[in-house]
Design goal:
Helix content is 51%, strand content 12%. By secondary structure, the protein is of the alpha/beta class. Bound molecules: adenosine-5'-diphosphate and zinc ion. Zinc ion (ZN) binds next to helix 20.
C-alpha cells in the first residue's frame, strides 16, 4: 500500500529551509566581519602626519611609499636618534617614553596616516626623497570568497554535521527544540495523499455494521446529485470509534477506494506544534488543498489529540484550542455538496469536545469493535489467503483461541506464522505455526491487551448473562439488546447492552430497586455457578451502592428517614459531588440503611437466578461459544421450554 503514496504540501506556504539557513548564515558572517574590522588596531609604529612633515623637513627621511590610506617611510640610516626622539616624543604626540623605548627606538620604517595634501609630491621632491606608490593587489573576488563564501560554507558544514543530528535527537520529544526549528519545514510533509488507495470493503473482514454505515458515504461520493436533487444534506464527517488495531484506518481507506477518490490522511497529534497558530494554519491549508481535489476523503487519525474537551483541564492549551476552533470553522465552512467527507478515528470518544460532535460536524459515530468469533475467523481467512498455507489448517480453532484479539493482532499472527514456517524451512504455513504464533502474540501482549483465558471467559459469560437474566425476569427491567464477552478497552471484560424503550426522566422506587438487583446479579451469577467471587463486579457494586445511597439520602425512599434529605448535590455542573447535610450519627444510620437495601437486593438477585439455574447455564454456554448474543436469541432460549 506504500507504493502509490507520495507526500504533498501546500503550494502557498513553501518556505524552503535553505533560504532560512542562508539568511541566518549571512547575518552571522556580517557580524563576524564587523567584529574583524573593529579589531583592526592602528599600527604600533605610527606617528602623526605633522611629525612626518617635521622629519621630512629635518632631512631624516630616505624613502617614502605612498599607499591608499597611509605612508610608510624609511629613515636615513645615519639619522640622529635623539633628534628623531625629540620630534616623535613630544608633548602633543601622545607617545610615551615606554612606547618610544619599545616600538620606535630601533625601527627604521615608520608609518603615518595619509592626509589629503596636494603638495606632498612637491615637498618630497624638494627634500630629494625617493617616493613611489605601492600597488596593492586587491582581488575583489578572492576577498569576497574569503570574507563571505568561506564562512558560510564552514557554518554549513558545522550545521549539517552537528546541529542537525542534535536536533533530530531532540526533535523526538514532542514540542522539543527540534520541532521548534522545524516549524517552517514540516508543513511540507504533513499529510499523505493517496490518489487511489486500492483498498475495497472486501479487504476489511468482519465489521459488517461499520461497513453498512459507510456504504452510504461511498454512494454519496459516487453520485452526489442524487442527494442534492432531493435536498438531502450528507453528513460532513463521521467518527470511527474503537480500540487500536481494529481496522479504522483500513475502513477509511476502503471508503476512499470504493468511491475512487483521493485519500488525505494525517494524524491529529501532528497538528499540535509548539507555536500557537501553526496547527490552525495547517488545518486551513489542508482544507484548501482538499477543496481543489474534491471529491475526496480526509482522514484524521487520533483526533482526540486536537479534539480534547476544552473545559476539563487545568490551564488551557492555546495551540490545541486554536487548532480545534479552526477545524470546527472549516467543517462548518466547506460546501458539503462538493463531496468532501471527513473521517476521524479515536479510541477515546469520551474526551472529545462536544462541539466536534454537533450536527454538521462529526455527527455520525461508527463503532468499530474488536471482532467476535466469526469476525476473527473471517479476518484470519483474509490474511491467510495472502500467505501459502497447507491444506489442513483450521482457522476456526485459531479464532477460538484468540478472544479479544484485534484485526491487527490477527494479521500479525498470520505473519508470525509465516515467518516461523520459513524458519522451519517449510514452504507452507501449517496449523502448528499458527498455534505457535498465537502464543507469541498473546504472550507478547499479555500486559497490554486483555485476551481472556478459558476460565475467565466462562466467568465473564455467566456474570453478563446474570445481569441480563435479572433484567428479563423482573417486570420493570428493560429488555437486553445484546451481550458480548469480547473484552472492551474501556475496562469492562464484557457487557450487556440494555435498550430502554423510551427516554426516562423519572424513576419509581421499584424501578430503582430492580436496577440494583440487576447490577448485583452479575456477582450473584458467579456465586451460583462457581461458588466464588471475583473482582469483576467492582463497578457494579459501586453503581449499586450509589443508587441505594441516593435512595436513602436524596429521594426519600427509605423507611427509617422518610422524606428527610441527608445529602445535597453541590457543583451540579462540575463534579456533582454529594455533600452530607446531616450529623455524623445520622450518617452512620444512613449507611446501615444503604446496607440493608443492598443486601435485600442481592438476596433477590440470588433467588431469581437460582430459580432459573438451567437457563443461566444454557444461555451462558451459548455465549461462551458465540461470544455475542442478541436480545432476540436471548429471549428465544429463555422462552423455549
Ligand atoms: P486502527 O486504525 O483501528 O488502529 P488499522 O486500520 O491501522 O487499525 O489496522 C491495522 C492493520 O490490521 C490493517 O492494516 C490490517 O492489516 C489489519 N486489520 C485490522 N482490522 C482488520 C479487518 N477487520 N480486516 C482485515 N484486516 C484488518
Ligand atoms: Zn457486571
Amino acid at each position: 500500500m506504500e507504493d502509490n503514496k507520495h507526500k504533498q504540501g501546500p503550494e502557498e506556504f513553501k518556505s524552503p529551509s535553505w533560504l532560512n539557513y542562508l539568511l541566518v548564515a549571512l547575518f552571522v558572517t556580517f557580524i563576524l566581519n564587523l567584529a574583524l574590522k573593529a579589531n583592526l588596531k592602528p599600527k604600533e609604529i605610527q606617528i602623526k602626519y605633522s611629525q612626518f612633515l617635521e622629519l621630512l623637513e629635518t632631512g631624516n627621511i630616505k624613502e617614502v611609499e605612498i599607499e591608499d590610506s597611509q605612508l610608510s617611510f624609511e629613515l636615513n640610516s645615519g639619522a640622529d636618534v635623539s633628534e628623531i626622539k625629540g620630534i616623535i616624543f613630544s608633548e602633543e604626540s601622545g607617545i610615551t617614553e615606554d612606547e618610544w623605548e619599545q616600538n620606535f627606538k630601533d625601527k627604521q620604517v615608520y608609518y603615518a596616516g595619509r592626509v589629503y595634501d596636494p603638495l606632498l609630491v612637491e615637498r618630497l621632491k624638494e627634500y630629494g626623497v625617493a617616493f613611489s606608490e605601492l600597488i596593492i593587489e586587491t582581488n575583489l573576488i578572492l576577498d569576497f570568497m574569503y570574507y563571505w563564501i568561506f564562512p558560510i560554507l564552514i557554518m554549513y558544514l558545522i550545521y549539517s554535521v552537528f546541529i542537525r543530528s542534535l536536533m533530530k535527537r531532540m526533535g523526538q520529544g514532542e514540542g522539543g527544540f527540534g520541532s521548534m526549528m522545524n516549524v517552517g519545514k514540516s508543513k511540507a510533509k504533513m499529510y499523505n495523499v493517496e490518489k487511489n488507495t486500492g483498498i475495497s470493503f472486501s479487504d476489511v473482514a468482519g465489521q459488517d455494521e461499520a461497513k453498512e454505515s459507510l456504504v452510504e458515504i461511498v454512494d454519496f461520493l459516487h453520485n452526489p446529485e442524487k442527494y442534492l436533487d432531493i435536498g438531502a444534506k450528507q453528513p460532513k464527517g463521521a467518527l470511527l470509534v474503537g480500540p487500536p488495531g481494529t481496522g479504522k484506518t483500513l475502513l477509511a481507506k476502503a471508503v476512499a477506494g470504493e468511491a475512487q477518490v483521493p485519500f488525505f490522511s494525517l494524524s491529529g497529534s501532528e497538528f499540535v506544534e509548539m507555536f500557537v497558530g501553526v496547527g490552525a494554519s495547517r488545518v486551513r491549508d489542508l482544507f484548501q488543498i482538499a477543496n481543489k481535489q474534491a471529491p475526496c476523503i480526509i482522514f484524521i487519525d487520533e483526533i482526540d489529540a486536537i479534539g480534547k474537551s476544552r473545559d476539563n483541564q487545568l490551564g488551557s492549551n492555546d495551540e490545541r484550542e486554536q487548532t480545534l476552533n479552526q477545524l470546527l470553522a472549516e467543517m462548518d465552512g466547506f460546501d458539503g455538496s462538493k463531496g468532501i467527507v471527513i473521517l476521524a478515528a479515536t479510541n477515546r470518544p469520551e474526551i472529545l469536545d462536544k462541539a466536534l460532535l454537533r450536527p454538521g460536524r462529526f455527527d455520525r459515530r461508527i463503532i468499530v469493535e474488536k471482532p467476535d468469533l466469526p469476525g476473527r475467523e473471517s479476518i484470519l481467512k483474509l490474511h491467510a489467503a495472502k500467505v501459502k498455507t497447507g491444506d489442513l489448517i483450521n482457522l476456526k480453532e485459531i479464532a477460538l483461541a484468540t478472544s479479544g484479539a484485534t484485526g491487527a493482532d490477527l494479521a500479525n499472527m498470520v505473519n508470525e506464522a509465516a515467518l516461523r514456517a520459513v524458519r522451519m524451512g517449510r514452504g507452507q504455513v501449517l496449523q502448528e505455526d499458527l498455534m505457535e504464533a498465537v502464543e507469541v502474540v498473546i504472550a507478547g501482549k499479555e500486559k497490554k491487551d486483555r485476551i481472556l483465558n478459558e476460565k475467565e471467559k466462562r466467568l465473564v459469560a455467566y456474570h453478563e448473562v446474570g445481569h441480563a437474566l435479572a433484567t428479563a425476569l423482573q417486570k420493570d427491567g428493560t429488555p437486553v439488546q445484546k451481550i458480548t464477552i469480547v473484552p472492551r478497552t474501556m475496562g469492562a471484560l464484557g457487557y450487556t447492552m440494555n435498550m430502554p424503550e423510551e427516554e426516562r426522566y423519572l424513576m419509581s422506587k421499584n424501578e430503582l430497586m430492580a436496577q440494583i438487583v440487576t447490577l448485583l446479579a452479575g456477582r450473584a451469577a458467579e456465586e451460583t455457578a462457581f461458588g466464588e467471587a471475583t473482582t469483576g463486579a467492582s463497578n457494579d457494586i459501586e453503581r449499586a451502592t450509589k443508587l441505594a445511597r441516593s435512595m436513602v439520602t436524596q429521594y426519600g425512599m427509605s423507611e427509617n428517614f422518610g422524606m428527610m434529605g441527608l445529602e445535597s448535590v453541590q457543583n451540579q455542573y462540575l463534579d456533582g459531588r454529594n455533600v452530607a447535610t446531616c450529623s455524623e450519627a445520622t450518617g452512620a444510620e444512613a449507611d446501615k440503611e444503604v446496607k440493608r437495601i443492598i443486601s435485600g437486593c442481592y438476596d433477590k438477585a440470588m433467588a431469581l437466578l437460582n430459580s432459573e439455574k438451567e437457563k443461566l447455564a444454557e444461555i451462558s454456554e451459548y455465549l461462551i461459544q458465540e461470544e455475542t448474543i442478541t436480545g432476540e436469541k436471548f429471549l428465544q432460549i429463555l422462552k423455549q421450554s
